[in-house]
Design brief:
Number of strands: 14
Strand order of the largest sheet: 2-10-9-8-5-3-4
Distance between the termini: 106 Å
Number of helices: 20
Largest sheet: 7 strands, mixed
Length: 515
């Protein structure tokens, strides 16, 4: 008795199918297709003699796994800020079914190299190869420098995924491969600034100071003034940059850590009609306070002034919205709350700015903001050779941030900062500020009288932790502890235990010297 065939295949006279050729093509998709699917594909192929089998197979897979729908929804999610849950609701499928399909898309993209999905930046969650992670961990163990827990305000501890992304096959920054990376970075970066289509992001290789200088030197007309609000080291740096470029500058200087009086800021704007822009820090890192950018932003919009904000140590770690805070130019750095590597600036610019500054002559060859915008818009490139490897690492760091959610990182920072503050208070430490507007990413801690800071720093470092000496005039009196980066609760408690042990040792030494 003959076995009944699993499926019947109509065979038009006009088309001949080679079984050997069919097997060869379908072998590419092993793991994606069931036997039933193979039968359907062969039937479709024979019913459409004008199309080759590979094209039919690709179309079948796209339809089966809703590739086009999910890809479109993922792309929309990047613009509309809705989540995977919203996509599941729109498709009417369960969580397990959605991620099952999403994983098939990823595998399909990797296997077939469908760059049309990657180009659109639709896939925000790429798989990590466990083998790569083990290899990275193994390599780090063999490095001459011992691993330290960084509790300084940048550079910060990075994830294994970010470290892994740093090592890539070499690419040219004038090639399409870099342009694909750049497109995805621009799209995802808008989300970390809470920006919409009225904003654009440019990338400048350099320290955070390079971003500050680009923002100030590129935007102020020679016949106008800039109002700089300074209540710490980095507010003073904004002022120094403005003076270096011979800009007409109005300085509102406060004592370090002193809060700004909004009425005073408004009076300054009323008194001087030539003020074109206001510049200030969001997180004044040198003292660990958050300045009232929302209130100042409202004033800037009320009096039609450009608003420049240094968000270098706050974007990603503290709530900030360029839209809600009326920010025209916002600078941040990859190596702080974004958990990337040093050497990359992201500058988010309101598109209205480009018209306002179109007649401003460049004051710097390398840090000309308009030049970066032109290359970014027209070519998806940078005008000069960028730190390509750092771009890859930043891309991964931003994806990890968006996958976990911005709010989760903010809450994580609050939790770690609260643990540090509580435990250090228990040990008798005092802090530079106790305002409601204190940063959740850093603490400025007073050095007890019996503590020699150099010895304290050395003992803490021996135990595997790096803390941060304050800048003058707070140096010798205060030090800083930051909870930025890929830190865990266990690391914080280990640090507290080390501090407690070190203080006890120093007290005993001081008591022995007295005897």
């Amino acid at each position: 008795m003959h076995n009944k065939p699993r499926f019947t295949v109509p065979r038009p006279v006009t088309y001949k199918l080679s079984v050997k050729n069919a097997g060869k093509i379908l072998k590419k998709y092993r793991g994606f297709l069931s036997k039933k699917d193979l039968g359907k594909i062969l039937s479709l192929s024979l019913a459409n003699p004008g199309k080759d089998l590979e094209t039919v197979t690709e179309k079948f897979l796209e339809k089966k796994y809703s590739i086009d729908k999910i890809e479109t929804l993922l792309e929309s999610a990047n613009k509309s800020y809705y989540t995977h849950k919203d996509i599941m609701k729109k498709l009417g499928i369960s969580r397990s079914r959605f991620y099952f399909r999403l994983n098939y898309i990823k595998r399909f993209v990797i296997k077939k190299k469908f760059e049309w999905i990657l180009k659109k930046g639709g896939l925000t969650k790429l798989p990590h190869d466990a083998t790569d992670m083990r290899r990275i961990t193994g390599l780090l163990k063999n490095k001459p420098l011992e691993r330290k827990i960084l509790l300084n305000p940048g550079p910060v501890l990075t994830s294994l995924g970010v470290k892994n992304a740093l090592v890539q096959n070499d690419i040219c920054h004038r090639d399409e491969d870099f342009e694909i990376l750049m497109k995805r970075l621009k799209r995802n970066s808008l989300r970390i600034f809470d920006a919409d289509e009225n904003y654009s992001v440019v990338f400048i290789s350099g320290s955070g100071t390079a971003g500050m200088e680009a923002a100030i030197s590129s935007t102020i007309p020679s016949d106008k003034k800039i109002l700089v609000l300074a209540n710490g080291a980095f507010g003073e740096r904004l002022y120094e940059i403005a003076k270096l470029h011979k800009l007409k500058t109005v300085l509102m200087r406060k004592e370090w850590g002193e809060l700004f009086d909004i009425t005073e800021v408004e009076d300054a704007l009323k008194a001087d009609k030539d003020i074109f822009a206001i510049a200030m820090n969001h997180h004044e890192t040198s003292v660990g306070i958050l300045n009232p950018i929302n209130k100042v932003g409202r004033l800037a919009r009320k009096y039609d002034k450009m608003f420049i904000v240094d968000g270098i140590s706050s974007v990603g770690g503290e709530p900030l919205s360029v839209r809600n805070d009326n920010i025209d130019v916002c600078i941040t750095s990859a190596n702080k709350c974004l958990h990337g590597f040093s050497g990359m600036n992201l500058i988010c610019v309101n598109n209205r700015v480009w018209k306002l500054i179109e007649n401003v002559e460049p004051r710097s060859f390398y840090l000309d903001l308009k030049k970066y915008q032109k290359y970014s818009t027209q070519l998806n490139q940078t005008p000069y050779t960028p730190a390509v490897a750092v771009f890859f690492a930043l891309d991964q760091a931003i994806r990890e941030l968006l996958e976990k959610g911005m709010k989760k990182r903010w809450l994580r920072y609050i939790e770690l900062n609260s643990i540090l503050k509580y435990e250090l208070s228990r040990l008798g430490f005092q802090f530079f500020t106790n305002y409601d507007c204190q940063s959740h990413a850093i603490l400025t801690v007073k050095i007890p009288e019996y503590v020699d800071f150099k010895q304290f720093y050395s003992e803490i470092k021996k135990a595997g932790f790096i803390i941060y000496p304050c800048k003058p005039p707070l140096a010798e009196k205060y030090f800083q502890i930051a909870n930025m980066g890929e830190l865990r609760r266990g690391m914080i408690y280990d640090f507290i235990f080390t501090v407690e042990k070190t203080l006890d040792k120093m007290r005993k030494e001081k008591a022995r010297r007295r005897k």
